[in-house]
Design a protein that fits this description.
Elements: H1 10-16, E1 28-33, E2 37-43, E3 52-54, E4 57-60, H2 63-79, E5 87-99, E6 108-118, E7 122-131, E8 134-147, H3 150-156
Antiparallel strand pairs: 1-2, 2-6, 3-4, 5-8, 6-7, 7-8
Length: 158
């Protein structure tokens, strides 16, 4: 893998995460402080497959998808360390996640993850997502690092 140069675009992100369309939910990484914090961007468009509609309300991003966006940005932070590049982050749990308001097509979601605790094989991140400076989601996520499977190694090398 090449050295990380910000901002990270889709191609660079795909070298780090095993996710691919339609499961890759991060468009760009704009800030990265190893072992501390990361900031990423998700541009929500009208043609997103996961948008949900409920009656008279406009289509919105389901809270579970927004949570996954934060988890993916956090995973990029963890996997950006050279010693973790041959591992895969496993989503272990979430605590006190609050959804503050809906996210709609046209919104640019700024996602930040900050390290709360980081060990060699486990850690906790505090993550939040903002739209126009307003927090739309926040909470703590726990992860474990496991060995990458052959499939994830193949995906990362594409």
């Amino acid at each position: 893998m090449d050295a990380l140069t910000l901002p990270l675009d889709q191609r660079a992100i795909q070298q780090i995460l095993p996710h691919r369309y339609p499961f890759l939910l991060v468009d760009r990484i704009t800030e990265l402080e190893p072992d501390k914090r990361i900031v990423g961007i998700k541009n929500v468009s009208l043609n997103e497959r996961f948008l949900s509609e409920s009656g008279a309300n406009p289509p919105g991003v389901p809270p579970t998808i927004l949570t996954e966006c934060v988890a993916q940005v956090g995973a990029i932070l963890i996997l950006s360390k050279p010693e973790n590049r041959d591992k895969i982050p496993l989503f272990v749990g979430i605590e006190r996640v609050r959804y503050r308001r809906a996210v709609h097509p046209g919104d640019v979601v700024e996602i930040e993850a900050r390290v709360k605790r980081l060990r060699s094989r486990m850690g906790q991140l505090y993550g939040f997502a903002r739209v126009n400076g307003e927090v739309v989601l926040d909470g703590t996520m726990t992860f474990a690092l496991g060995p990458a499977t052959a499939a994830t190694k193949d995906a990362a090398s594409d």
